[in-house]
Write a structure and sequence with these properties.
The protein has helices at about 5-10, 15-25, 30-35, 45-55, 65-85; strands at about 1-5, 60-65. The chain is mainly alpha-helical.
């Protein structure tokens, strides 16, 4: 299953949903659905506007859920390693 990374990318850039909506020109209801991953369809024109507003390629805003889970596991492993090194 695919997942949108719009919220994560916007937060990385210290943008809230309203700021991104104004920058991208998409409607707030549409952006909210994408922001919360409450959609089964993605309008390419809207994704392109959002990506342009975030200054990223549209493909950077989509990930397979399996990849996201693998990234989270790697991050957790790194955090455990860091904590163990600090404790030593």
């Amino acid at each position: 299953m695919l997942r949108l990374l719009i919220k994560e990318e916007a937060e990385k850039q210290k943008l809230n949903r309203n700021q991104l909506q104004l920058r991208s020109g998409v409607t707030l209801p549409l952006l909210t659905r994408y922001w919360n991953n409450h959609t089964t369809e993605i309008r390419l024109d809207a994704l392109e506007k959002i990506a342009k507003a975030l200054r990223v390629e549209p493909g950077a805003l989509i990930i397979r859920e399996e990849e996201l889970m693998q990234d989270m596991k790697r991050y957790q492993a790194l955090m455990r390693t860091d904590a163990e090194e600090e404790a030593a």
